[in-house]
């Protein structure tokens, strides 16, 4: 029993998150047959007020079905707490009489951190799903937080390197991948802090190494990812991975587009405080932004807001972020947010990085917003990313229509009626 707002918190079962504020690197979608395994309970007004036995009836029918589930996950919402409904009673009675594990995701209202709930959830799922004795498979891994678009490519290449990828857990959830976590030799986790915190309780029960890596973006970044995995699992750097003919062809195509991108610039606007952490893969979903922009051949125009009590030492920041003026990187400070429109208009860059959905601050300045959705991981993804950026740079759409983005609806008439400004 959950409303739509709560439903969209559960990225491992819901459709694309309903966020009108930010972009994320992946949009999780449910498996095609989700609604064959998904049941809504107590959503009617009568059930909410008077109560019923639909939960117990549903659990009983699941147990007695021809193909009983291997795992049941029950999601609560704040609604049951607000009306005082007892959900734990039926759940505990079910657990005493059934061998099917049931994981209860308890919404604990605002005084409990959201990530703590997820941390307890994943630990509970793991403990109830793994066999009593799990056999470790040598030279095998399980990935946590690997981008869904690159899972197949990574699994294929790892097999060529003598490593078995048993499964990938999060953002998707499956029982097979939970059990893979118990059987793997090494866990390869996304370096994103969200993943580290969310699985921290689960890691305490794992007697195996956990390697945290930035996601494989760009040709060089993907090479580094495979090298790190091989060092962790095999104890040595990966064989000449670029000798694989398919990867050679993709590398050549990437280099061709990279030469076409050389000399173009991307603007990044942020606060001075904590800039190194804010641009790192640990806080940017595991995406190594700055190294990827460099590999693509883009010069970086970094614009930092600095308050009066903050340090604005150019050399320190350039060293922290490895900015290189010789390759065209620049660093600029501003002290008033009202300067932002002019800085955007006057900047010698075509692209501006943003995580804000429909960022009209950028589009109204005639510049093109670049979001994480245009960046694709893996070898094939590196080529697709380069193509995406080349297309964005070559497009004059936002430059030509900048005036219309300032007030998006001001120039449209409705069904031939009067102008909305009148």
Radius of gyration: 25 Å
Output the strand order for the largest sheet.
9-8-7-10-11
Number of strands: 11
Label the structural class. Answer: alpha/beta
- The parts where pLDDT drops under 50 for at least 5 residues are 10-21, 408-422
- Number of helical regions: 20
Compute the separation of the termini in Å: 46 Å
Reported for the largest beta sheet, the result is:
5 strands, parallel
| Oligomeric description of these chains | single chain
Mean pLDDT over the residues: 82
Query: Helical content, roughly?
Result: 40-55%
Write the layout of secondary structure elements.
Blueprint: H1 4-7, H2 45-50, H3 54-64, E1 72-75, H4 78-83, H5 88-97, E2 102-105, H6 114-129, E3 140-144, H7 151-160, E4 164-169, H8 175-183, E5 186-190, H9 193-198, H10 200-203, E6 210-213, H11 219-234, H12 245-261, E7 265-271, H13 275-278, H14 289-295, E8 299-305, H15 314-321, E9 330-334, H16 340-346, E10 351-353, H17 360-363, E11 368-370, H18 378-394, H19 397-400, H20 402-406
Parallel strand pairs: 1-2, 3-4, 3-5, 5-6, 7-8, 7-10, 8-9, 10-11
Q: TL;DR?
A:
The protein has 20 helices and eleven strands. By secondary structure, the chain is of the alpha/beta class.
Task: Characterise this structure.
With 422 residues, the chain is α/β, with parallel strands linked by helices. The chain has 20 helices and eleven strands. The protein has a five-stranded parallel sheet. Strands 4-3-5-6 form a four-stranded parallel sheet, sandwiched between helices. Strands 1-2 form a two-stranded parallel ribbon. Strand 10, helix 17 and strand 11 form a beta-alpha-beta unit. It is globular.
């Amino acid at each position: 029993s959950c409303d739509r707002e709560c439903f969209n918190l559960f990225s491992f079962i819901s459709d694309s998150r309903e966020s009108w504020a930010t972009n994320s690197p992946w949009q999780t979608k449910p498996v095609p047959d989700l609604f064959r395994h998904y049941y809504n309970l107590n959503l009617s007004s009568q059930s909410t007020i008077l109560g019923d036995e639909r939960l117990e009836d549903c659990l009983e029918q699941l147990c007695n079905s021809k193909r009983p589930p291997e795992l049941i996950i029950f999601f609560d919402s704040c609604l049951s707490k607000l009306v005082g409904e007892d959900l734990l009673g039926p759940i505990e009675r079910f657990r005493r009489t059934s061998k099917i594990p049931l994981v209860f995701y308890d919404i604990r209202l605002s005084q409990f951190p959201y990530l703590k709930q997820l941390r307890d959830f994943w630990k509970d799922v793991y403990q109830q799903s793994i066999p009593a004795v799990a056999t470790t498979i040598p030279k095998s891994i399980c990935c946590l937080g690997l981008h869904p678009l690159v899972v197949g490519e990574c699994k294929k290449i790892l097999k060529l390197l003598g490593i078995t990828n048993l499964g990938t857990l999060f953002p998707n959830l499956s029982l097979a991948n939970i059990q893979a976590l118990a059987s793997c030799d090494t866990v390869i986790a996304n370096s994103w802090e969200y993943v580290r915190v969310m699985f921290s309780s689960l890691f305490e029960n794992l007697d195996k190494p956990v390697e945290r890596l930035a996601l494989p973006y760009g040709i060089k970044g993907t090479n580094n990812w495979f090298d790190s995995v091989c060092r962790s699992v095999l104890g040595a750097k990966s064989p000449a991975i670029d000798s694989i003919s398919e990867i050679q062809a993709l590398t050549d195509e990437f280099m061709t587009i990279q030469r076409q991108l050389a000399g173009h610039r991307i603007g990044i606007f942020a606060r001075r405080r904590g800039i190194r952490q804010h641009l790192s893969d640990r806080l940017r979903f595991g995406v190594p932004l700055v190294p990827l922009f460099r590999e693509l051949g883009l010069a970086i125009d970094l614009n930092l807001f600095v308050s009066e009590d903050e340090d604005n030492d150019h050399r320190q920041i350039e060293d922290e972020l490895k900015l290189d003026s010789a390759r065209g990187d620049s660093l600029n400070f501003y002290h008033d947010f009202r300067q932002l429109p002019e800085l955007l208009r006057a900047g010698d860059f075509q692209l501006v990085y943003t995580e804000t959905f429909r960022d009209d601050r950028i589009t109204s300045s005639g510049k093109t917003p670049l979001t994480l959705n245009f960046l694709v991981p893996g070898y094939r993804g590196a080529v697709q990313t380069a193509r995406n950026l080349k297309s964005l740079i070559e497009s004059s759409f936002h430059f030509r229509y900048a005036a219309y983005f300032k007030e998006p609806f001001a120039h449209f008439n409705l069904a031939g009626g009067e102008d909305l400004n009148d």
